[in-house]
Amino acid sequence: xxxxxFILNEKKVExxxxxxxxxxxxxxxxxxxxxxxxxxxxxxCGACAILFNDEIVNSCLLPMANVVNQRVMTIEGFSTTKxxxxxxxxxxxxxxxxxxxxxxxxxxxxxxxxxKNAKPTEEEIKDGLAGNLCxxxxxxxxxxxxxxxxxxxxxxx
Amino acid sequence: xxxxxxxxxxxxxxxKISGKEAYVGDIKLPDMYHAKTxxxxxxxxxxxKITYPNLPKDYYIVDASDIPGKNFVxxxxxxxxxxxxxxxxxxxxxxxLVIGKDKTEILKIMDGISVTYEEDTPEFxxxxxxxxxxxxxxxxxxxESDDLKLIEGTYDMGYQEHVYIEPQGMxxxxxxxxxxxxxxxxxxxxxxxxxxxxxxxxxxxxxxNSKVKVKQAPVGGAFGGKEEFPSLLACQLAVAVNKLKIxxxxxYERTEDMEFSTKRHPATIELKTLVTKEGDIKQVMxxxxxxxxxxxxxxxVVLQRAMLAASGAYAFDNMIVTGDVFRTNTVPTGAxxxxxxxxxxxxxxxxxxxxxxTLSINxxxxxxxxxxxxxxxxxxxxxFRDTVIMPDMIKKAMDISNxxxxxxxxxxxxxxxxxxxxxxxxxxxxxxxMSWFLHGCGFTGSGEQKHIxxxxxxxKDANNQVTILIASVDMGQGIKTxxxxxxxxxxxxxxxxxxxxDPDTDYxxxxxxxxASRTMMIVGGLVLEATKKLKKQxxxxxEQLIETNYKQxxxxxxxxxxxxxxxxxxxxxxxxxxxxxxxxxxxxxxLVGTWSVYDIGKAIDERIIMGQCDGGxxxxxxxxxxxxxxxxxxxxxxxxVTDYIIPTAKDSAKMETxxxxxxxxxxxxxxxxxxxxTLIGGAPAVxxxxxxxxxxxxxxxxVTPEYIMELMNNE
Amino acid sequence: xxxxxxxxxxxxxxxxDEKLTIIAGGTDVMVKNRNWSGLIPRVEGNxxxxxxxxxxSYIREDESGLHIxxxxxxxxxxxxxxxxxxxxxxxxxxxxxxxxHVGTIGGNVGNASPAGDxxxxxxxxxxxxxxxxxxxxxxxxxxxxxxxxxxxxxxxNEIIKEIILxxxxxxxxxxxxxxxxxxxxxxxxxxVGLYNADEKGTIKDVRIAFGAVYKTIVxxxxxxxxxxxxxxSEKSMEDIxxxxxxxxxxxxxxxxxxxxxxxxxxSLLKSFIQMAGxx
Lengths: 157, 715, 279
Known about the structure:
B: Aldehyde Oxidoreductase, domain 4; 18 helices; C: Uridine Diphospho-n-acetylenolpyruvylglucosamine Reductase, domain 3; Enolase-like, domain 1; 33% helix
């Protein structure tokens, strides 16, 4: 058992337990944040994606040891931001949401992508979504939503 | 009045995008226990002895001996047990649930269970036919002769796994003296009926004093995979909750879900035709074999769907159609978007192309000659009553995709052969393929009238708030939005003045399952009918309750025994065109673009329907070129999303889609079925595109690089 | 128990004390040792987590070659101007952004999967693996380091400190990862070919490696020498291709079959030979 700290949604928090525990389980079981979903448990589907020091990472593959003193932002934290609001609106406008299970992960992937590349091409968007599986939409409407939000004039990214 | 098709925001958008939507795996009841399924690790045989370890306090094992009713999952046939009694019929068949609070302890208990089996020789081949149907059309009297050539084609397809991103899950709990279920499902009343049956409660008894309730949690994708399969989880939990009176959650891990939940039926479809050399198709014969796995489940109805689609989007005068469900010692197969039709439409679309090729006639001409027209007879000798606008749709699809010039160009390229010895990295074959297809809307035959008997209610309260009471489930297809839209639109009241909650069998009547592309056309139709009644009888600030019941249109005549008559009240139609590149070095296929035109009557919300079109098509294309699943000695080989390949964003392509406006007289605002249709054309279109690219006939899906290599090497 | 080392030296001391599972990004260990969700992954014995050891995260170049610290993340390889394009090409196709942000080069090497996507590239670059323990530094060629699927000659007290890629010149580069889909897939097979030609078109160097078609990466120096000769003499390559065909011994599994793996590998080889101007 170890007691460590990390930054969760911009607040310093404590975790006590085995440092091999998956961040996903800590978020869901210890902090009651269930916006990160388990879809596959092996880093393929991206439903559990979170921002780890501003970059997309699968929380199902991240041991707590990696998280010590690092910054983790989940969909719950991100959803309070202005950037989130813009992405949310664009996802709604473009019909990018069906069953919704992959959606928080898609939002995280979008933010991670736009952080690095504010005006991505369609191909770059596809690369950015390569680790997020969606079985409902065929991806087109998600891609359209990301193109649209990245072409906004207020330069959020 | 505004056109109803104009899109509005989906009601659950914000809760889903922000991660607040609580799916079954996100719900924690106070004092909740976990359950894990202990499974047989042989393929076929008998349990000789089973020894459970001593259980610590508050840990439980629930098995067949705890079942109050008869030990089967009530679906159609009484053949699939909830827990193995002693006979094991497939690898991983559930034997018991281990229940407790600490997962580590549960796993320890599972390790301590010892089972002695007597193994039997399993059957994996198509030998043990358990359901058989056949029907003829016209006067199929023709025989092979000098004038009549016999052309044959045998088409094969493997499993397809749903890969809803949310795995199967259910919570059972005991509340107000009721065994209650909350979970991911398409059909709350299927589950309720199955739970009643396993608990030995007669429907009349339940009517008087309700002992069971089922509530739907938000569903993270279903595609048919949460039609009948969740009944198994619910029955297992019901037995446990009935005995222990505690809340228990049973959430599958992905690997468990992929190995042991239902999948699309593998099938072999043999097609034969007797045809003159000019291309007069005198007779078509279809023999359908589908692999039902260890239990019959819904396989009989899936087989029917497949057989009824035996002429695809064409009308042939004389047909002989036979089909069998084969029992094998493998995981039971079940419902999956399209329900037998994808297998048959793939086969028919390939076959008609292959007939034309064999006769050296233009495939497009042959297809057009037999394309269904209004008034033609269906494969089951029913009538296509409504206008068929396929010629316009085909023209539209061909125009926007440049289909004709592309096929000709690509054909020439491949036929010109290639004298180059090797290929450079970027060398590709190009191909384009077009599929024509239809899908019968709603239940097959008299299913709606005889078995479902849908009931819909509208309740208006004293504040004029109208609540829709139906058992239909929003699994992403947006009915929480479209149903409310329908009612608000008809009553000309604000959308917010209409309520629709996730169904709870304590409150909603049985409006039937969320399957068979019936939800908008049938349930929505009843909702609209009720709305119209309410509009007429509207009394401001008074409580009102309106009920409507399904009544089969008078013109529909169907015989369940002979499978003759009108199998469906209406048909939706589609055209898909798919363009691909095939690497000349690795035979990997790259999707270039798709062009689609659909007739679904009328879209109740255009953006929602467009979402169905994109998603369905990519699932169909995945089925056609990517998604390999097979078993080895009865064990599923692709047990993870790492090994079972579904398309990513990079595998997708730009999809251009057009919806025709062709309102169906009996559908709400003209709407017909849409959900399944959009999957059906993907596999044949992509397979035909690959065929066009490589110049070889394709007989099998998925058309993987491995299969293409086989075809290319068989010169 | 998980040891979070204070620094690199502490890591070496800990490894000397007991056999530990080394975890960096976790992208392989966490999958291999998966447990029921909510439970701790079933990592054997105690582990040491080196993810946050900055001392292992660097990319620098000197006369001995390009030194990449074992803890360097895959994404960092993509962003560094020092990294050779062939390695970037492999990293770009090997994994999703979410994996690249935490997965490390040391992990990909230490994991020693025949389908490990950076490995064929590292083989053609004659990569040297630098291992360190309290006893000292040991340098070993990647050919000798990886002995089979998941098997290396790393001793339990050693850590992969860095890898050194020899800087080689090339004028032609051919890389293909064949997976089940266009991204986010484990390789069915992979191929890399490099050649270097002078201004007159004479080929001076040629290197080839195949992934996922044998228990280790397939690279053969003798056949490369023969190939080099043939390329410059316009001799037929058939014998050489036959020889490679003997070396490629793939398996049937849930992702592909041996026949495809073999034939596709040979097609890629032929395609590369054609690119290099051979027959």
